[in-house]
Each structure stands twice: as structure tokens, then as C-alpha cells.
Amino acid sequence: MGTMMNTAIQGACTSSGIQRFGAALALSLFAASSCRPEDPRSIQRLDSLEPVALSDGLVYVHPARSRAVRLQLSSDPAAAPRVTRFSVGPQAVRAVRRPGAEEVLVLCRGERGAPGVAPVAATLVALPATASAQPRVYNVGSPFNAISVTSDGRFAVVHYAPDRTLDRLLFNPNEVAVVDLAAEPSETNPRRRTVRSFGGIPTSVQFSPPFTIRGESRTIAVVVSSSYVTLIDLAHLDRAETSVRLTLAQDAREIVPQQLLFDAEARAFYLRATGSNDVYFVRLDDSGTPPAEGNDFRASINQIGAGRDPSDLALFGAGDARRLLVVSSGSSEVRVIDPRSNAITSLALDARADRVLLFEGPSPRDPNTTLRALVYPSNNVLSARAVSFIDLGAIESRGSQNLETVQVGRTIRRALALPGRGTMLFEHEDVTSAGRLSLLDLGRRTTAPILAEVSLAEARFNTDARLLWVAPNGNTRVGFVQLDNFHPGEVRLDAPVREVIALPAMAGAPSRALAVHEATGGSVTVLDGNEPRRETARRINGFLLADLLEQGAP
Fold this sequence. Notes:
The chain is mainly beta.
């Protein structure tokens, strides 16, 4: 019977150490429980936000303690992990990894102030990659509750997300703060501003890929609101934003954006929204003399009929062959749209679908690897049992001749795409077990069942896409599928699992995943990301308690 290695962090490495630590911890928690009934310290002290994965471990953020704890694994599996602690601001509400860097960004709403408690400004804290470096603290000014970061990690936009529990007498929901993460904090970094409003409240912030505008690479932040979007040029934050309305001023409809699809080649984006059967095409035009005020580009908008209830968009082709593929769940059809002429080619589907996947691969009739599309249902609301393949070559002239329907056999409840592996996983309702999966081969267009006791809802990939992890909440077993040969397996652990987090690849280190357990003091099991086995698993306990007694009561 396999055993696992166990590691306890600081002060709990021997049995006597465990006893002294446990006794002191019990006294500490007893004292905390003696606080006033309305004082939440006794239950909040060790609560943390969702852990954030770095290449070598996890970062936990404790809002009640204004503290972040980094668990850092060594590239040597036998070496003890390192625990580093950082101070953050009060009321941390979001923690995300900065793309392209070994940093974690922590958004803190600050302290309002109370008798004997001084107010503290809201901040965005960039936790460094090494313990020797100091966190960068950006004063964002207002108690924002959401953060969006560009894909290159250069800029962050902090803003308000719709929330009825912001715990402030007054706040401006259209205020944002733009942080240049590559620069040090200063009086002009972050740059705070209020975006123009037509009565709505921002629901999200999304970022364009680099657009070439007047010979300069620009990233555009798109602040999404009901019935309009606002464009902020991150390369020129001193310039006013550009607002684009999705309806006329006298139109009372509520158009709620759901999907933005950027087209760097056309310097444009497509927008799909509930409340409209059109797709909105917004293009940035830098021709002619720049406007006297505001940005040096103009935004034009065009509406394209996309069928009833458009549910997903995809772009393919280049230059004059650039096309938009639209699947509409309400009309059981796919539309191929030429955005330059608005010409539409419609393909009727044999089964309803609401998602589209572009992939490179062969087909049973064509061994050549070329761009193709799969349209499929992503939930059981559509009650669909089939998917459709579309060969995109000469689609406008061949029409439905390029369409093939493949029966899956059972109502599709959930779908998980594995285009890099040439496959798609489907989950079905199953009255005889907790769940059942089907594996669709995108090249052969054949399906095969995989029996399963779990749902795909919590499935996670290794960063190298070699393994698919499934960890039912509260179960002591972690399941996995090897995506090279679709061999399933499982590993028995010593404690119930909350989730599995696959660590990003790190040079010189083996592929690893962390099974996170529910434990007050912190508990994870390190699993081999290539060949997970109980014998090579290593459990680490107590890393969140390492300095609890040293810090005293909050």
C-alpha cells in the first residue's frame, strides 16, 4: 500500500513541537472567541481568497490579517518548501497573477476608519517574485472591487463590478484607475478618471491586441456597459476616451454586451449582445486629419444581421477573405458574414448549437490539415444530441455541401474543447451513474464513451495539456486522463480535496499540480504532473500558521 511524504512547516516538525504549537494555537483561538459577538475576528482570521498559482507554488491572501503568504516549492522534489509573507492593505478583495511575470496583484479596498482606527487608502499591491524585493503599492484612491490586466501584464485597470454590498455611503461606479505596472508608483501612476456615462454602469473591462494607429502600436481598453462601450487608449492616457453607443438616444432597449472579438488586422472588434439579433462591428479609423480634441482616431459602428439570438463568434481568413462565423442558438443556423460587404451565407443545422470551435486538422474525406470549424451545444438547455463540422474552404460557393452532422447519441450537458489534441470531451446526463463522458475525434469524426463518476465542471488541464485533472469537491481521490492516449487513472490522498491547481511550467522543474485541502492552517498535496502516483505525492501542512502566534490579535 502506497504512502505519501508529509511536511509540516516551521514549529511543527517534531511531535513535541506539534504539541506546543497546538496548545498555543488553542489558547490563541480561545482568546479570539472571547471577542464581542459582533466582532468577526474569530472566524475571519484565517479565511483567504482563492489561492493564486505561480510557477513554483501558491499565494494565499488573508483579508482579515492584511497578509499574503507565498508557498514556494523547490525544483528538487525532496527539498523543503519556502514560506514568504508579505503585508498588503486592508480589505483585500481580489488576487490575480500578473501575466508574463511571477507577481501577484492584490486589490485592497482600504479602511473606512472608525473610533480608534485610522482610515487607509485603497491600493493595488504588486507582490514581488522574490522575498528580498519589496511590494509595489499603487494608491488607486477609491475602493474598487474588480481588476482587469492586459495580456502582456503591462497595464491593470481597476474598476467597480456590479455589487450591492460595496459598504460605502457614496461611490462613482463609472470611475476607473489605470495602473502602469512597468513603472513605479507615483502621483501620476495610477491615473484616475471617470468614463463618460449614458446612464449605465460598467460591467467589465477588456483589452484589444496591439492595434497600429498612425504608425504606433496601441492597446485599447474597452470599458463595457449596458448599451454602450467606452474606449481608452492606454498609450495616451492624457487623452479623452471615445464612447460608442449601441442604440439611438431615443431607443429604450437594453443591449447587454456578452462577447467582444478583436480583429487586429482590421483594427476593429465585433460585439455580440443580448437584446439584439445583430452583431456590432466597431472599427477605429485613423485616416485624415486627427480630431482637434480627444483621440487621434474615430470609431465607426455598423450592425450586421446575425440570426436569432447570436451566441458565439469566430473569425477566419485574412485580407479580402476575412470572414465572421456566427452561430445562433435561437435559429439553428450558422452564418458566414463578409464584414466588408455584409454579404451573408446561411447554413441550416440539423441540431441546435451555441458554440463554435476553430481547429486545424484533417477530415475523413480530406487528409490535408486545414482550418475547419465545429459547432456544438455547450449545455443541456438546447437538448441537442449532435454536432456539426464545417469545412471552411470555399464555404460561400459550396454552402451546405461543406457541412456534416455527427450524432453523439446522448443529450450534451457540457463540453470541453481539446483542439491541441484533436478531440472534444462531452458530458451527458446519465440516470445510471453520476455522469458519463464521450470523446469526439475531430479528425475521424467518431465518438467513443468514457465512463465516469464525476462532472467536467471542475476539470483542469496541466499547462502543457498532457493531463486533464478532475477533483470532486470533498472526495479523497483525484482523477486524471492522460491526453496522449486517454488512459484514465486516479490517486488516493489522505484528505478531502477542494480543487486541483496545475502549476504553470517552470524551467528546470518537473510538471506539478497541487491538490488543495480544506484546512485552517493550509494543506496541499504536490502531485507529479506527468505520472501522478500516491507513492510520489507529498503533502505539505501548516504553512499558513507559521507566524500566526507571532502576529498577535488583528
